[in-house]
């Protein structure tokens, strides 16, 4: 991935196992990542409303460390000091908390190390609450373990995920030391010369929470590395439903009962992020526990644990309890039946001996023998299965594949799919991408609605032999003409034309090869723009550097056009293939590709009304405004 960080570790916090890393167990300075432990200990032992009076000791020894500017005698709440510790990474706030908690930095360091030992952080030693390098070290894995523990505290989570906060007892607003990005929910940075740029962060991808710790990055690269790793996870992993509530997962044998097996079902739906292409049949399923239930088994007793593994990682574990007792056999009835049969046989034998001695025949002997035979037959019929062994204890999951057991009511037949997606319902906001495809009939009918930009406005198509005429909707063509006229006026010596607008065929984009039906060019609202001052071919890497193209992105929304595939929503480098995801990632980065959506929507997208003031993607915008429910599976409102 071309990372700057010398070591990192990615932890699946939803399931509790490591995903990937580099030198994740190598001891290293961790700078202000130390303050995660400082905050956790304070949260576990202090009242947030408690007031701390600042002493000279709390402010000493912080040369070259970030401070919030506390003064001797100042009274500050524990809560405000915690926010100052976790957001601007204030060393004076961290020392004030440590000393007021345990009396000295040394005493607090002892508490830190005991807590670390209890968490199994075997490669960690803390000497101070701030992150000074002297005898203060850890590893990416250990910091991930620490953060996972801290995230169990709701107050820590709130502080960790806060990027700006007003502190009443300090009278100031503090901010985190980095800006929130596309993936990161919360984070804590750190820096010393020895540690380099560090970042411990969290993100949710495909319904799974991840913790990522990066250490030793170059200036400004810790956030970049973090985003690259999260993007790689999103690209390389996909949600897989490994459990469905109510489906049978296990059978346990039963002894001395007509019920030969007890069936156990999954308690809930379980979906996890797994490497692309992983099927649930590729996982390992195991039951460890009691192999046979008997009349001695107590109701409520734990029988064992059903576990799903991927390699050595536990994806899911369900404890199996004996909750419903089957009907066991009553051996008094067996004894009674056998006794009656034996009695009848004995009576028949006695009578038979007596009659034999008297040399007489008797109907009574025959009757008794018949009754004996009937008694034996009834006993065998009633009780034979009592003595049959119990059923086999076995894991029955996975049985039928999910795509084969979906009920007929839930299934969507291909001929029922609305191929037009947004073509009719959303006008200028129609969405066409690899998850929202259209058929050839739509493309053919769409073409009939379009006008020639070159004929109406004299805007030249520079690759007509391959792409055909530059066709757009009448509204889009009119606004394109106005935008390119303004471009020419405000950028002397520059003139722009098109190099592809409407397309009937698929788009070979170098990153996604969208089959016919998946290209944004099918909308009749899209055009690839080119300024011949920069050559005759489209060049993403080059265009973004020119002030004229910067003007285009900065002003296009005024004419209803948006940068359809901005870098921030591309999901990574173009050499890393991605598809559209549930969060709004487009899978593409093209500086030349502009899309008409109308002035109102373009303004909201360009100004980030639904994206924290940052340039939005069309996918994310449509979901944020409720027009799309599921970007991954192509579901409209």
Span between N and C termini?
37 Å
Rounded to the nearest angstrom, the radius of gyration is 36 Å
The tally of beta strands, per DSSP, is 28
Low-confidence stretches: 399-425, 506-515, 573-577
Beta strand %: 15-25%
Shape designation: flat
**Relative helix content:** 25-40%
Q: Structural class given helices, strands, pairing?
A: alpha+beta
The whole-number mean of residue pLDDT values reads 82
Count of DSSP H/I helices = 19
Main sheet summary? 5 strands, antiparallel
Q: What order do the strands of the largest sheet run in, or round the barrel if closed?
A: 2-1-9-8-7
Overview of this protein structure:
This protein has 637 residues and is α+β, with helices and mostly antiparallel strands. Helix content is 31%, strand content 23%. Strand 8 (196-205) and strand 9 form a beta hairpin.
What's the topology here?
Blueprint (H helix, E strand, L loop, with lengths): L6 E6 L4 E6 L12 H11 L5 E3 L21 E3 H9 L4 H12 L2 H14 L21 H11 L3 H7 L3 E4 L4 E4 L8 E9 L3 E10 L2 E10 L3 H16 E7 L4 E7 L6 E5 L4 E6 L8 E6 L2 E2 L8 E9 L2 E9 L9 H27 L5 H21 L10 E2 L6 H4 L16 H4 L14 H8 L3 E2 H5 L6 H4 L3 E2 L1 H17 L5 E5 L6 E2 L4 E2 L11 E6 L8 H4 L3 H9 L5 E5 L24 E7 L2 H8 L11 H7 L3 E3 L4 E2 L1
Parallel strand pairs: 11-15
Antiparallel strand pairs: 1-2, 1-9, 3-4, 5-6, 7-8, 8-9, 10-13, 11-12, 11-18, 14-16, 16-17, 19-20, 21-24, 22-23, 24-26, 25-26, 27-28
Helix pairs in contact: 1-2, 1-3, 2-3, 3-4, 8-9
